Amino acid sequence: MPTSPADRPVVTRFAPSPTGFLHIGGARTALFNWLWARHTGGRFLLRIEDTDRTRSTQAAIDAILDGMRWLGLDWDGEAVFQFARAARHAEVADQLLAQGRAYKCFATAEELEAMRAEQRARKLPLRYDGRWRDRDPAEAPAGAPYVVRLRAETEGETTLEDVVQGRVTVRNAELDDMVLLRSDGTPTYMLAVVVDDHDMGVTHVVRGDDHLNNAFRQLGIIRAMGWEEPVYGHVPLIHGPDGAKLSKRHGALGVEAYRDELGILPEALGNYLLRLGWGHGDEEILPRERAIEIFDLRDIGRSPARTDTKKLENLNGHYIRAADDARLTGLVAPFLAEMLGREATADERALLQRGMAVLKVRAKDLRELADGATFLFRARPLDIEPRAQALLEGAGATLLADAARALETADWTAEALDAAVRSVAEAAGVGLGKVAQPLRAALTGRTTSPGIFDVLLLLGRDESLARLADQLRSAS
């Protein structure tokens, strides 16, 4: 099964329709095309298929471009806008007409509807019956509107050697004479795609398997024009955890939602999308450089991949822990501002960055990371969560008072703070955790936080002792 046309450098493309956000299925398609181009030293092109003028929007175009840049999927050259090439598409249709590989069809909308009604009644496939295929256009009324249809092959079979799906064959009798130009002279999607791929030098058409049937129709245009055929790779669609096609009920989101709402890092989402339907042995953590090195279209599976939220969270946690602290600080800042209801000051951002090494250890996303950092910036006296309040009562209150006294005289170093708290635990005959729990509750208002000594060091002596004093006063 070929993976490259002979003697041609690889050229792949991503061709989204700008009718909505960049969803993860489209992002994965873009990623596969980008990786194959980068792996082979080829080119990755971007084409915006904006021929549906009623649904295409500038906002959607911006969202697609922004999402691709965020994922690090840079394209070569300028983006191509399909609508601007309508004259070129029509030129090819006219060329096919002149060669006798296409013809004018004057069938009216009423005639076509009657044809389909009869086919439905007879339980036949709904396809154009070729009624104008061999008729003389002079038979049509003067000035009658017409469409241009491809004169498709009617005998034999068309076989596609798909790099993902394998060999797929369709009887030509199942393919009707599709429309190339509408009655208003505008090109159809099927024509525009083929012409653009040819003119852009695309060697590999890697896309969702919902386009597999389109490939057989598009090959009819390619062969009629005598153009070189690309390598096709039709990738199974992404399914939800239940095995059904991914949809809004599964929480299907655009790429920007993973970034802005869920707090996912681009390298984590890229790694996750790569592993949805593609694999290389047991490797799960695949940084971009490694992915470029080993990516092969032949490793794409034929079965639909299922989304796995836990896997995405685990990958994101891995990349958060590996990320530069200064970069993380900038990424976390918007989430933190949302939670605090204000922007962090320069000093607070510096504190956030100093604490990042311990704050990021258990976080699975940027939102959780920001939430775990809020204790550093809350105004005194802290609001104490109910479960944390329970730790400040009874024996906890006594241990907290003892710990506060020990800390007042301690040097503010990790070793000295550890020794001070341990001395309280030993004197009370309890484990270190029994003292750390009320300390954590008083210092953060919560039952979970970074290690208690990290908390004390980040807050500093004055703020730590002031927070402890607040709780001791409220308990008295």
Automatic annotation (TrEMBL):
PROSITE patterns noted in UniProt: AA_TRNA_LIGASE_I
UniProt keyword terms in alphabetical order: Aminoacyl-tRNA synthetase, ATP-binding, Cytoplasm, Ligase, Nucleotide-binding, Protein biosynthesis
Residues annotated as domain Glutamyl/glutaminyl-tRNA synthetase class Ib catalytic: 10-313
Residues noted as binding ATP in the record, renumbered to the chain: 248
Segments carrying motif 'HIGH' region: 16-26
Reaction it catalyzes: tRNA(Glu) + L-glutamate + ATP = L-glutamyl-tRNA(Glu) + AMP + diphosphate
Residue ranges occupied by any Aminoacyl-tRNA synthetase class I anticodon-binding domain in the UniProt entry: 328-470
Annotated compartments: Cytoplasm
Sequence motif 'KMSKS' region, location on chain: 245-249
UniProt main location, coarse: cytoplasm
EC number per UniProt: 6.1.1.17
Gene Ontology molecular-function annotations: glutamate-tRNA ligase activity
Xref: Pfam families: Anticodon_2, tRNA-synt_1c
Purpose of the protein: Catalyzes the attachment of glutamate to tRNA(Glu) in a two-step reaction: glutamate is first activated by ATP to form Glu-AMP and then transferred to the acceptor end of tRNA(Glu).
The protein's assembly and partners: Monomer.
Family the entry assigns: Belongs to the class-I aminoacyl-tRNA synthetase family. Glutamate--tRNA ligase type 1 subfamily.
HAMAP family, alphabetized: Glu_tRNA_synth_type1
Protein's recorded name: Glutamate--tRNA ligase
Organism of provenance: Sphingomonas morindae
